[in-house]
Structure formats: structure tokens, C-alpha cells
Amino acid sequence: MKNYIIDSHCHLDLIEEKGLELREVLENCQNNNVRILQTICTRVTDIERLLNYTKEHDYIYSSYGIHPCNVGDQPYLKAQEIIKFCNENEKIVGIGETGLDYYHDISAIPLQKQMFLVHIEASRVTKLPLIIHSRNCDLDMIDILRAEQKNGEFPALLHCFSSTADLAKAALDLGIYISISGIVTFKSAVELQEITKNVPLNMMLVETDSPYLAPTPFRGKTNQPAFTKHVVELVAGLKNISAQDVAAQT
Q: What is the chain's mean pLDDT, rounded?
């Protein structure tokens, strides 16, 4: 049984920009049983930096895509361009992060939707999982996911889930995974904790989204992949199972 922890979503470039030393960050991972990392692309113009991490460390993987908040200052990609780039780089294991964010800039919603559909098509063709960012957009997200899965199935996950039970149910009904972050450890996250209890373990991932959203007991500090351990432990407590079982399944 593989009972080590995978941080399915971190941002090593942004962690370094926060002032943490990468060597120390990776040592902390090994000391906390976090053995595999996926560093997430938010700007395709930064992809070479991310790929360098994957070349220097065999346990680090990357994704490729444009964060919805960055669609205005990044190249307008076509699905075929994403497909080609991913096919040429074996350490890229996901498409995104992509999706919708109605919290930061509602003026960009039309372009966000266009780019989201482009990423969906790339996921559909490559069979690489779509890494979905969803904030303040539950109804549109549900509509798009339902419509696009009917157009042709694609593997996907809702990363750093902090939305409603309705979105969680709609996603699970479509075979879309739910990724739980350190938010679940917050005392205020009562609704998310209830949702987490009801997400089947075989449909769940864990992540940090570091350097953001450090879990309890590190709130207010720079988050890092080693802290995925605290997400695993909280999930285990909610489900009344062992942390080893959570780690092994996720």
C-alpha cells in the first residue's frame, strides 16, 4: 500500500517568491511523508520555470494552463496548442489551472468562459485531468460542466474546494473529483467539513494550494507542501479513519 502523501496542487514558483528556500521546502516534504508534488501553472509564460523543477526532481510534476484571473494578460491559446505542448512534455500531468472566478474581476467573465472551454477541449483530447478553479460562480460552473461532459467526457477535479454542497454533488454525479485543501482545517469551515464527510474517499484528492491558505496550526504563515499532512489528518478525523488510509487513497 502506498501510504505516502501527494500534494496535488502547489505553486513552487510563488512559494519561492514569498521568500522560502526551495531546498528547505522539499526537505520538509520528505520529513512529513509528502513524496509527490504537482506544481501548478497559472501563466503559460512561466512554464519553463515550472518544467525546470520537474527536470531537477523526479517526484515533481507540472500542469499547463492559464488561471482565470490571468486570461487578460496571457496569450490566447487554442486547444491544439495546449494539446501539442502537453504531448511534448511527459512531466505535465494536468491541464490548468483553469475555470471561472467571479470574485476578482467580473469584466473578464466572457474571456474566462472562452478559455475554460479551450482547456476543456484539451483535457478531452489528451485525457489529462482538468484542474478547475471555481469561485463565486457555482451556477455557471454546474451548467458548463454538465453541458461539456455531454459533448464528450473529460477527466477533471475541482481544486481547493470551498463551494456549495450543490456544486460538490453536481461534480461527483459527473465523475469529477473533489480536492480538499487546508481550508477544511479552519474553525469557520463548518459547511466544508460536512461536505468533506460526504465526498467518497475514492473521489477525493488533497492539496495545499501553497503558498496560500496555510492550514491550522500555521494560519497566517506561508503555506508549503509539507503541510498537506495536516489536511490528511483532518480528513481522517472527519471520516473516522486512519491518516494512512486517507494518504493511501488520495
A: 97
